[in-house]
Amino acid sequence: MSAHLTEQAFSSLPLHETLQNGLRSAGFEFCTPIQAQSLPLLLAGQDVAGQAQTGTGKTIAFLLATFQRLLTVEPPKSWDGKQPRAFILAPTRELANQIAKDAILLNKDANLRIVVSYGGKDYDKQKEDITSGVDILIGTPGRLLDYHKQRVFNLKSVQAVVLDEADRMFDLGFIKDVRYFLRRVPAPTERLGMLFSATLSFKVSELAYEHMNNPEKVEVAAGKVASDRIEESVYYPANEEKIPLLLALIKRIQPPRGIIFVNTKRAADRVWGFLEGNGHKAALLSGDVPQKKRERLLKHFQDGEFPFLVATDVAARGLHIPEVSHVFNYDLPQDVEDYVHRIGRTARAGASGVAISFACEDYAFSLPDIEQYIKHKLPVSTTSDEVLEQPQPAKRPEKRPPLPQHKKQGSGHKPKRSHSQRNKPKHANSGNKSGS
Prior knowledge:
By secondary structure, this protein is α/β, with parallel strands linked by helices.
């Protein structure tokens, strides 16, 4: 049996027959640890706050519990046949899409109406899909808030609520929207509540206990998940050795598909430039990449057209990319939880993976906190053992055209200055701030 599966068979759980059929046709036979721990509780009507990172099978766990609830519990008497009976919030459109894909997989015989909604595209189409009638509404907070305030849907008939990657909801500033929704669904005693997060920090736990019905805490230890199937190591390069070391490792290992994490947009541009300049096709994903381009780049990476993705944490949150063989922490993250998120991009669904970190002069101070958090020391690899590459010049990223002058100066219209004001010299410090 695969190392990431338990001996708990789905067939032994009291799941609705249509769900058993869906699981069989999708090839799911045995539970992962998070599924084995949470499903018996959820199927018995117990709320769950689960600690599990992506790739552990949590999506199938909360979807099965959600489907089961809708298939076995009568809708409220006030239900009009069109409003959502289950509400699933995710921090990013990529994650919302992945949840919807898994839901469609399980829905083979259940015939529930599933709609996914997120910003950036298909505004009218998504609106129409919801108003046509929906059982399970999946989406990101911003777009759903917009529709809810327009009364496209209401939450009065909701029988199951899921918050996925709750810690990311906080990180991305969505928590106010999340609380807005939680105040508008039926009371915790009248619905099933599920919250999943890579870390059950104090703020996440507080959210769970405030808006859930005495949730049972279920944990798949982050350190254990990380160490079981991921081969981790750390190098201590000087700053000027980082690019030569990265190129040397790529040449020696020849990763089939790798993500290179950096801490800043400037570092992302630099690393991407040296990869491209040295013959390695790479996609560049930082927070300011427009949505259409972002989707196109991710598709190229997923299809194997680019073997490498250079990304900042903001850009990579909630991404579901199968078959990532290697993760490189070119910059060690300054937040310990981000280390677990990053390396969790590899070794998904039971596969093994490799995570290589650089503890350089700028970020080595983060290492003791990371090792304390994951509860093990990272094996040290020696930079001098590698044949460092003399890099070819970096390629420059495409520059997007500058914004028109009036947009650069912030939003809102400024009053026109009079002729006398225009001829006055500006104060030395009155220019626009740069770098924001």
